[in-house]
Amino acid sequence: MRAYTTAHLRVDLPQGHPFPLYKYQGVAEALKGLLPILPAPEVPREALHLAHRPEYVEKLFTEGLSRQESLRLGLPFSPSLLRRALFAAGGTLAAARDALELGLGLNLSGGTHHAYPDRAEGYSLFNDVAVAVAWLRREGFRGRVLVVDLDAHQGNGTAVFFQKDPTVFTLSLHGERNYPLRKERSDLDVGLPDGVGDEAYLYALDEALEIAQAFQPELVFYNAGVDVLKGDRFGRLGLSLEGVRKRDERVFRMVKTLGVPLVVVMGGGYNRDPRLTVEAHAGTYRLALSSLA
Ligand SMILES: [Zn+2]
């Protein structure tokens, strides 16, 4: 077992920008000693073309994003930002291959589920899960894929990528009143009220996972965003650290019952207490290892 990281890649951000670069370093630090942590490989441009609109990809490499497009992304566009996104997506691709080979693939980055086929949005330049699925298809993987997106925000981009693909089931549990305000249609959307606590959350999750399981997936991607934690700057939900552990446990238990490979990607996490963000993310990966490795 191994995990991929983008922690070594720097990005030029304005001082005080809320993007939590610190957590990639923190999570890698917290997990070293448990398993080898490798620098994520760069995603082949060809893989980006398979999933995204090629014009969009090429525009990023030539012109970058306009001011307006950067506002929508929530990050100022720069070569360092593009570079980091290439490795973050590459990490998910490598983790997906690991999953098929070893049963479990871990990317300590990725989960950029707001990227659409033709545009960037919400900290997401490339939709790493869509890119990985497209690449696996190209390599001949034909199995049914389930995307379990438990980040606090709807996986709107992911929903659009797979809307017309009957071989991929998208499940998103998210804050109904939270970003993105205009929701897309996943195969199963569960919108939760602001401030939802552990009990109500886990009840809704149990119901959703039961439906998702009936799809009989042969590969599962898990967006394990921890912005569901109480005290998150953007999440608006109210889970405890123990609630997040129980959430993860349910996903891993389902995967174990199904006996299928799992890919874990990081997703969001912007707690006012940075230590909590790191602890929650690291907890997800530790539990994945102890339950599935
Ligand atoms: Zn989020």
TrEMBL record:
Residues 21-273 form the Histone deacetylase domain. This is Histone deacetylase. The lineage of its organism: Bacteria, Thermotogati, Deinococcota, Deinococci, Thermales. It comes from Thermus antranikianii. Belongs to the histone deacetylase family. Keywords: Hydrolase. It comes from the Bacteria.
